[in-house]
Amino acid sequence: MRRKPSSSIPWGTIGLWYAASALSGVTSKQILEEMTCPFLLSACQFTIAYMCHSVVARRTRRSELNDPVETTNSYRVLVLSAWTFSLGMNCFNSGFSIMHVSINETLRALEPFVVVLLVACTFARDRRLSRNRLISMLPIALGVYLSAISNKAFSFPGLAVTMLANVFITLRAALIKRIESFIPADVIFSSTLYYAMQLQWLLAGVSIVHGGLHRRFDFNTKEILFAHVNGIFFYVHHRCSYIVLTTTDLLKHGIANAMRRVSTILFSVSYFAVPLHPTNACGMAIACVGAWFHSYALQHELHPSHTHPTNASNTTSDNKSSESSTKHSKSKNLVV
Q: Per the count of CB atoms within 10 A, which of 16, 168, 312, 320 is most buried?
């Protein structure tokens, strides 16, 4: 069963989400500085995350890990969405190996551009984007631009990899929208970890065979423990994001996610003792405002709550029928 949205904000979960995101990004950067193999890092992260989720599901007596998918077509889309998300996270980790955590997270804020482009060109040709949603692109673009030009770690290969991550994650969201009415959200979450883990180990094996691992690990206690800690942070980050999304709404989650990126950037800058240029800080603030505006516009598109007073009585039945068609739209980014 899906959780019903609540008017209260889970501040504790949001705080844990922020902490796990920052620590996951910092530890991922440290690991990639040693082995420079994003596929192996992603494989370890998804494996540990799936193990953690298995323990949590058994302790809470949930059966989503073993719940069957009703139709073959839904199952195929579910697996494809997991693989797509897996590739997106691998590209995101590749960005860590090319650039600093701060600029990598900043470029991830360009994801709304990919969403708007795909909605306009492919997925919804008959759907017109709202003016507010298009206007929200301007502060996001300006903020990312200011951050990029003032960050020495910026590189065009890193930009390309991060934008590819945005494309994969956006495609995954589109696939989830096709099956979210038929498959419970918890099953989608656990299946994403499971099938993404399988694909990542396949890609990691191919990468290692072709020389993708530039350093052989000794697999001592310290390295094994550090990898497990990184995987736990990875799981907590995505699980908390999922909980916030399913217990609030798109607007609150979008605002929280924008602030989560800012907190991760500030923590990474402080941890690695990287000087923060004033233009970079200004860009982050502007992009954060744009992300909030975009979340507001998207929320208004999916859940229009303002009707004209004279038409309120005529639209009550229409609103009730529309709720059933949009009540599952929140879960399109179950792992963010």
A: 168
